[in-house]
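Morning run. Coffee first, then this:
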Amino acid sequence: MVKPYEQFIKEHPTVEAWIRNRPRETRRKFASYLQDFCKTVNVDPEEWRHLDKFEARDLAWKYVEPKTASNPTVAKGALTTLKNWYRNLNGEQLPFDSNRGGKHYFHVTHKKYVTEHIPNKTEIYQIVDMASSLRDKAILLFLFQSGVRVNVLEHLTYGDVQDELNKEVMAIRVTENLDHKLRGRNIPFYYTFLNGEGAETLRRYCEVKHKDSTPETPLFYTKGKRVITQAWIWKIVKMCVKRAGFNPKTMSTHTIRKSFRKIVRQTNIDDDDKEQLMGHVIKGSRLSYFDKKDVDLIREAYLKCNFTKEQPQSEVTKLRKQLETSETKRLIQETRLEELETRFKMLTKNFESLNEKLKEMAEK
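And here it is:
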């Protein structure tokens, strides 16, 4: 079934061209806001953005103003959409007086009800173990071990990982087509990796779900063969967090990226390697250094971070370690006893020698 905003996009080729290269969720929001605006003020989208900038602004404000009191977040999203659509024609800005105290100013308050909890590696794997399917487990491990932004999982295809599946450590080349946030940061691409359980789970997932797939097939998809969305991944994360016994309000998909960052920041590797693994801009003269840097060097830095699961010790291993510890302590005690015996013998010998000298002196 075609959704109303999708039908709106099909009916307006210029709108389709405007949002074609944007993330899926951004396309949905922009098209929905623009459609609702055109329906409310009874104007064609192309007709509106050809109006004089002041006339266009007044129509936009007429639509947005009632929302500023009841739902300022929606008002902000709608206003951003309309500004972007109008500017897309010839680059001209709508002249809103939106500075504090201005005619078009309104305040958006972001309420944070609970403190975010950034899980450590042990807690992450507790969450991963709660996954209800191989796909969900692969998604959670991919988010954590690679540290990518969630929009990457929405854009990944089977072809992006196909050549890495037989490798112990999989290299993931994140381009601006996968992570749209790179476009505004002058970063053409960066490398991250998967290894251990993350690589093995993705390998098994692809063996099951991508037997006959083409390189263009979405890497993660739903039962209806539709590409998985960020909203769906959000639900997976929230569900597994709750099952693991944590408060789902304290964690989100981006929290998992923060767990990745915490481990990277605590590892003793080059600062530029840390920023590169996060997909951040490298400051200073080494800005383009990682465009040419050997992937093996980045891989070495990644492996030092150690994102693999710590295997629980068996009872036999624990007993063996206890025995080894007891044996070590026994050997240390025996060594100390031997040292004390040697020192006692030396003191006894010195005492006897001194006693003989005292006797000789007394006889004289």
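The chain is about 60% helix and 5% strand. Good start to the day.
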